[in-house]
Amino acid sequence: MSALIYRLHQGVFAVLTVAVLSATPAHAQRTALFEDAAKSPWQEAEVHLPAYPASADLLPLYVSSTATASFFIDGKSLSIADDGVVRYTLVIRGSGGAENVSYEGIRCETAERKLYAIGRNGSEWVRSRNDAWQVIAENALNRQHAVLFKEYFCPPGEVRPGLDQIVRSLRRGAVMR
C-alpha cells in the first residue's frame, strides 16, 4: 500500500511541476542567464512620417564600388525610437536621373527592415501596403540595407551608436570614399 501512495505522490508532484512551469508565459521568460527580470514582448512604437527630405539634408551613403545608383540618408529624418528601431529616409538616385524615396526602419535586435512609406511626386508620402518586417539579406540588389545595418546602425560586436554618432559616421564615410 505504501508503494501505491508513493507513486501517487510522485504523479501529483509531476503534474504540479508541469503546471508551474507552463504557467510562466513564453514571452515573459528570461532571455539571458543573469537578467534580473523577464523581458516583456516587443511592441513597435507608433510611426509618424517625417517631412519630405530636402536636398540640403541628404548625407551620401557609400554602398559598393559596383553600385550604379547614388544613395543618401536624410539626416533630419534619422531617429531611434523607444522600441529600438532606427528609422530613416532613404533616397536612391539612378544614373539615368530617376529618384526613389522611402521611409524605412531597421530593427537591430532581429536584423530586419520595414518599409513604412514611399515618396510620390517629389513632395508627399504614401504609406506602404506591405507592413511586414523582412530579414535583411546581404545581396547585390538591396545591399544598402545590409550596409546601414552592419556599418552604421547595428555594428556587430559593438555598442549600438546614438544618433549623433550615426550622423558623424555617415559624414565620415562619405569623406573617406
Distance between the termini: 84 Å
Please tell me how large the radius of gyration is: 24 Å
Q: What is the β-strand count?
A: 8
* Sheet with most strands: 8 strands, antiparallel
**H/E element string?**
HEEEEEEEEHH
Uncertain stretches of 5 or more adjacent residues: 15-24
Output the number of helix runs: 3
The chain-level structural class is: alpha+beta
> What would the average pLDDT be, to the nearest integer?
83
- Proportion of strand residues: 15-25%
Bin the helical content. 25-40%
- Inertia-based shape: globular
Task: Provide structural commentary.
This protein is an alpha+beta fold and 177 residues long. It has a domain at 55-176. It has helices at residues 2-23, 143-153, 163-176, and strands at residues 58-61, 70-74, 79-80, 85-93, 99-107, 112-120, 124-127, 134-135. Strands 1, 2, 3, 4, 5, 6, 7 and 8 form an 8-stranded antiparallel sheet that branches. The longest helix is centred in the first third of the chain and has 22 residues, at 2-23. The radius of gyration is 24 Å and the shape is globular. The model is unreliable at 15-24 (pLDDT under 50).
